Amino acid sequence: MAAYILKRLLLMVPTLLGVLLVTFAVTQFVPGGPVEQYLAEARATTGGGGEGGGFSYRGAQGVDTKRLAEIKALYGFDKPAHERFFQMLGQYARFDLGRSFFQNKDVWQLIREKLPVSISLGLWTFFLSYLIAVPLGVAKAVRAGSRFDLVTTLVVLVGYAIPGFVLGVALLVVFGGQLGWFPLRGLTSSNWEQLSFGGKVVDYLWHITLPVTAMVVGSFAVTTMLTKNSFLEEIRKQYVLTARAKGLDERRVLWKHVFRNALMPIIAGFPAAFLGAFFTGSLLIETLFSLDGLGLLSYESVIRRDYPVVLGTLYLFTLLGLLTKLLSDLLYVWVDPRVKFD
Q: Where are the transmembrane segments (predicted)?
């Protein structure tokens, strides 16, 4: 076990290097880098970009050579690309993610500021998805082929087929706009600080209902069907027939014998699903409901070519993803001791 874990940890190093190298190389060839972004914003502010004070992108044209060199030195682009890459690796080895070009904050500070929104969306989405999907999958397996199974399958697949942002728009229009039951934006009200503890809880749940609903509806279909199929596969095995032949109660057979074996692939996927609930699939929901989270931060950083934020968050998410994959494998062994790494 220890040798396997050590080998997996060592294999993470070239994986991280490969991801960072490819991303860093791509950023060197994308037009409109940080220097050009800075010059463009400066022209837009001074109104010197086009006719009538308008703005037109012209790269570094018309900029004094000395001033351009100062701007490049400000962003570290006065050094060769390979030197900047190895400097970045040295920082990441010390878990120094750098400083944002445009927000004048450390990347770690930006992540900490945006994390509460992503935690709110991720935790609610993860727990509600599994609390609905697992019992529903078990019920579908027990009633396989019945009208309940067919109707719930149709409902689950329809929910899965509707994109989250489309459902979010519909929820906003109907329940936020026409009926006015829920707020249209934000995670809390403007008078949050003046509310009592109970009022804060109610206000928070009031704001989080629509975005979480938009994320949950399409997220538990796979888990539901996986649970159902796993239970059906286990129910047909010989040990279940033997337990029934001994006269054991059906509920005891399902929950004591079948449940653990059927949920092994689902439990092993807990870490990946938990991490994915935070860092994937929330960009459009965050934008739609004006929630300033990690998804929106990553998107805006790519648009503005804020490379320290782009590469820093990519490094962090990739590292967490690799560790989560290792944890999933270890969890699978813990659930099923018959699995051996060798």
A: 117-139, 151-184, 204-227, 262-289, 309-335
